[in-house]
Amino acid sequence: AQKVTQAQTEISVVEKEDVTLDCVYETRDTTYYLFWYKQPPSGELVFLIRRNSFDEQNEISGRYSWNFQKSTSSFNFTITASQVVDSAVYFCALSVLVNRDDKIIFGKGTRLHILP
Amino acid sequence: NAGVTQTPKFQVLKTGQSMTLQCAQDMNHEYMSWYRQDPGMGLRLIHYSVGAGITDQGEVPNGYNVSRSTTEDFPLRLLSAAPSQTSVYFCASSSPLAGGSYNEQFFGPGTRLTVL
């Protein structure tokens, strides 16, 4: 069965600190996709990144970076020099194709507080 | 493009009432899904559809029905509302990726439902 675990329920850091959000996934499929979404206090869900199972290259986008490691089934998200606007709930998600019926499974989310 | 639209934004029901949450997308996406978001529970998949005429159950389907008569619309029906269905409901859509699985999801703004 597919599963996404975000063990950190809530994290608080002081502005300008770096912070890493963990995501561990489980799947038997060899082809899958991983995603991160952000949900700011306003409530909408915003797509951040997609990564497929064949591409283990890390990715950097401004202050955001993602570390994908198949050996540990992890897809961690790091925010460098955090800002108050980064305060949000962050969700990791997994998409696989199972018997031609795809499901997209979300973790329970990590609530990130950036303190001024 | 309007993206994914949901109506209503807010709804209060009495126990036992029925209602339909509307969801529509104008991106010609094959995949559509409904999630509920409860505090500490993340996003839980209720029902999903991989195309018109095809629906399937997610993690928490009990008490909800869906249908997909067109590519654009994916309504969620509460047959007999219960206080346990008080939640925020999100509809999402996605397009397929080459080789299977689905791309990032576009989410609607959500419907906040209270059942008294």
Account of the protein in words:
In chain A, strands 2, 5, 6, 10, 11 and 12 form a six-stranded mixed beta sheet that branches. The N and C termini of chain A lie far apart (41 Å). The radius of gyration of chain A is 14 Å and the shape is globular. Chain A has no helices and twelve strands. Chain A has 116 residues and is mostly beta strands. The model of chain A has no long low-confidence stretch (mean pLDDT 91). In chain B, strands 2, 4, 5, 6, 9, 10 and 11 form a seven-stranded mixed beta sheet that branches. Chain B has a four-stranded antiparallel beta sheet with strand order 1-3-8-7, with no helix packed on it. Chain B has strands at residues 4-7, 10-13, 19-25, 31-38, 42-51, 54-57, 64-66, 76-78, 87-94, 106-107, 111-115. Chain B is mainly beta and 116 residues long. Chain B is built from no helices and eleven strands. Chain B starts with a strand and ends with a strand. In chain B, 0% of the residues lie in helices and 50% in strands. Chain B is globular. The interface between A and B is medium-sized, with 27 and 29 residues.
